[in-house]
Amino acid sequence: MQAPATTSTRPYMVRAMYDWCVDNNCTPFIVVAVDGSVRVPQEFVQNGEIVLNVSLGATSNLTLGNDYIEFKARFGGVARDICVPMGRVSAIYARENGQGMTFPVEAVSTEASSRAKGSAPAASVESPPAPVLGIVSSEDGAKASEAPDPRPPTGPRPSLTRVK
Fold this sequence. Notes:
Radius of gyration: 16 Å
Low-confidence stretches: 119-130, 140-148
Mean pLDDT: 78
Strand content: 25-35%
Helix content: 10-25%
Number of helices: 2
Structural class: alpha+beta
């Protein structure tokens, strides 16, 4: 007998971290691994990633759904529609203290790629991996002028470099 299919825990963990940030007067930021399935301003992508402020003050119409994070935000004074498949979120953390959670990045599904391009979604084939719990520390001693290492962090405590 085959086990019943379950939904990913990632969207629930992202929403929980988001709520924790808001409850503690912190600014929630997400790190997104950019590919063809992600709709973000490409001019702000660095090393295949973009860091987005997803606070209520920085976004409008924010939806933290099970499949996508969608909102409108201003980049350089220009309003943009943002659509991030949940599987492309590699971290969520509080800007003020670096506490957060990292996740493995999922492969692109046909549905995510179609939605980012604005067409009707197709059937998704893959089930997502489980999220990795950990503390994201922006205080790892890295200088702001140094480019972040594109490889996933190793060791027991992952770290992020804040990109401004």
